[in-house]
Amino acid sequence: MIVGAALLLGATIVVLGACLLLILGVIAVRARRHSRSKRDEMLLSPLRPPLITVASGEDDDGSAAEELTWATGVSRTVLDRNIADLLTKIRGAPAEQLVRVLEVHGAVDAAVGDLSSRSSVKRARGAQLLGLARAAHTVPLLVDALRDESVEVRNSAAYALGLIGDASAAGPILAAIGVPDRGLPAATAAEALQSMGVGISEVLREGLKDENARTRMVAAHLSGERSFTRGLPELRHLLAHDPDVTVRETCAVAIGRLGRGEDADVLARHTGATEPLPLRRACVTAIGELGEPGAVPTLAGLLGDPDPRLAELAAGALITMGAEGRDALAGHEDDAAVRSARLVADLQKSAA
To answer: In whole angstroms, what is the distance from residue 201 CA to residue 194 CA?
Structure first.
């Protein structure tokens, strides 16, 4: 018993000691961060007035930007870090002036070198800075970084390419989604591609034929978002035949935004009970987006569907189709789905 009590006491002391060390470690880290923050504020203090002048667009003669280029040593490092933060918020001439300061300081060249660093943190930061600096000449290097072993670096490279906006990078970004084990997250790729111009329309059209489902999904989503109608034939084909339900749903949404009157029939074919429920809902919503009166009978037939959400979506679509759509609701006034759809429509009208 005495031995057991001694062991328990010893274990308790060890645990308490570990907790104390952990608390002291946290305190030390916070103190160090606070000290570094105060130091940075002190170093930046004399440079803050010209920095604010440039960032606010009031440096008409360029003298404030010129003053910033004179920073040296640790002050320059702190200044460059603050400039990078500002570049996430400002555009136009002030941003160009600040980028010029970074170039004079050698920060852009250093970021290029960081892309080959052994540290994934440095590689990611380097990619981000090149994007913020709109360093178009580094696009090939950033494209290579899309295949980096670190997902943080891949994300940063895609982010940078999106900021630069060079459409020549659209193909590599889209292809990077489907790379085994090192694929680019679909959301990251979509965000980067979103900022590129109309030059990516053919790339998206080819992406609709890719063997990777996530690549097809992103291509379909962006085709709808960017109103690239040339991809409609491929979208219709994928809606009917793609083995991935999410891709089919995304195609339905895109067709609802891009399609023509005849596409209401294309969508209506996939509202039947044999289709996956998420796809049926997406197609009904897309039919409502098209607003084609010829689809009224199809929507009216779904008012009594066993799925209450689908019935509500059908009722909501009919409400937007004018007199013909509202007439189709006759006899269903007391249906929960119709009441709910009308309530939503009234709320939307009030908020408009």
So the answer is: 11
Q: What angle do CA 295, 300, 301 make, to 5 degrees?
A: 100
List the chain pLDDT tens, one digit each, 352 residues.
555 666 666 667 767 667 767 776 666 667 666 656 666 577 677 888 888 898 999 988 989 999 899 988 888 888 899 999 999 999 999 999 999 999 999 999 999 999 999 999 999 999 999 999 999 999 999 999 999 999 999 999 999 999 999 999 999 999 999 998 889 999 999 999 998 988 899 999 999 999 999 999 999 999 999 889 999 999 999 999 999 999 999 999 999 999 888 999 999 999 999 999 999 999 999 999 999 999 999 999 999 999 999 999 999 999 998 889 888 888 888 888 889 988 888 888 887 6
Cβ atoms of 215 and 174 closer than 8 Å: yes
- In whole angstroms, give the CA distance from residue 109 to residue 96: 16
The ranges assigned to domains in the chain are 260-352
Residues contacting residue 214 through CB under 8 Å, at least 6 positions apart: 177, 178, 183, 186
Decide if domain 260-352 falls under CATH 1.10.10: no
Q: What is the pTM of this model?
A: 0.82
Q: What is the largest CA-CA distance in the chain?
A: 90
Q: Cβ distance 244 to 216 under 8 Å?
A: yes
What is the rounded distance in angstroms from the CA atom of residue 124 to the CA atom of residue 155? 8
DSSP 74-85: HHHHHHHHHHHH
Are the CB atoms for 175 and 215 separated by under 8 Å? yes
